[in-house]
Amino acid sequence: MSNEATEKVELLIIGSGPAGYTAAIYAARAGLKPVLYQGIQPGGQLTITTEVENYPGYADGVQGPEMMVHFEKQAARMGADIRYGLATKVDFSQQPYKVEIDEESWIETNAVIICTGASAKWLGLPSEQRLNGFGVSACAVCDGFFFKGKEVAIVGAGDTAAEEALYLSKLCTNVHMIVRRDAMRASKVMQERVLATPNIKVYWNSETDEILGENKTNGVRIHNTKTGEKTEVPISGFFVAIGHQPNSDIFKGFIDMDETGYINTIPGTSKTNLEGVFAAGDVQDKTYRQAVTAAGSGCMAALDAERYLATKGH
Questions:
Q1: Which domain holds residue 264?
Q2: Does one domain contain both 83 and 141?
Q3: CATH label of the domain that carries residue 151
Q4: Has residue 1 been placed in a domain?
């Protein structure tokens, strides 16, 4: 640790998606004077989505980035201390807990709420980045509605990909499912459902060469790794469902996680294996991953933290 004076805070919130901001709103109202660091992507995954139509209270829908500005303003109005900066290291070996910010300064805190989220895994194609938000998406449940009555493609072979393909099949005329190997990783029952759905066409042993379109997605070029054959399929939407990576690396060694890095919380709470450390949002939720569930778990974390700090006499 550096020799600089370490700042001491009552409650530190790491991350600024719906979970982080909701935790800040509740904690600030409870008089806990929370300090929130926004992280590398202030507003989280919602800042890379366009229209959000499934969040309650927005009758006409709302742009993802605009919604996160509303969340931030509300947290600030309640008195949360919102700062730009990235948590780069932690020392949870003893209390008070210590968190390094931007590799230069340390904060000591009596309680921590981890809301660092998860990042969608991408294929890494330039065309995928260019058309992200213009027909390319990593969330069928969020964006599938915009492709009602259109043709779409989805890449992936796990349960999430199978689930999203089935979801899209109810909205779209045809779903072209691109699977890298000659089998799916999805559970048997999910595979059977996919294969029994007439408007889902599976491309086995196939990889995505390029997503086609200038300013919006209008096709995909697929190549078969066995035969070398290339196919161009006209589509309006391209969904990437190859998994998410929880942003939890800096907590490894201190916090219990599952094999993929999602933080384990005690069911029905936001509590981790360390007292005074709580987790909310997508960093601990690989099942639902919605803005509204993240916000709900942020509320739980703030209430759990408030009770914990009260019992400790802070």
A1: 7-119+244-311
A2: no
A3: 3.50.50.60
A4: no
Q: What angle do CA 37, 43, 46 make, to 5 degrees?
A: 155
What are the structure tokens assigned to 192, written together? 């059977």
Domain co-membership, 154 together with 248: no
Amino acid at 161: A
List of residues 6+ apart from 259 with CB closer than 8 A: none
Give DSSP secondary structure letters for 198-247: TTEEEETTEEEEEEE-SSS--EEEEEETTT--EEEE--SEEEE-S-EEES
Could you tell me which residues are beta bridge partners of residue 153?
Answer: 176, 238
List all residues 6 or more positions away from 215 whose beta carbon is below 8 Å from its beta carbon: 134
pTM attached to this predicted model:
0.80
Same domain, 202 and 156: yes
Instruction: For residue 43, give every residue at least 6 positions away whose Cβ sits within 8 Å of its Cβ, in sequence order, or none.
Output: 16, 17, 64, 65, 68, 69, 71, 72
pLDDT in tens, 112-150: 999 999 988 999 999 999 999 999 999 888 899 999 999
Number of domains forming the structure of the chain:
2
Residues known to be catalytic: 139, 142-143
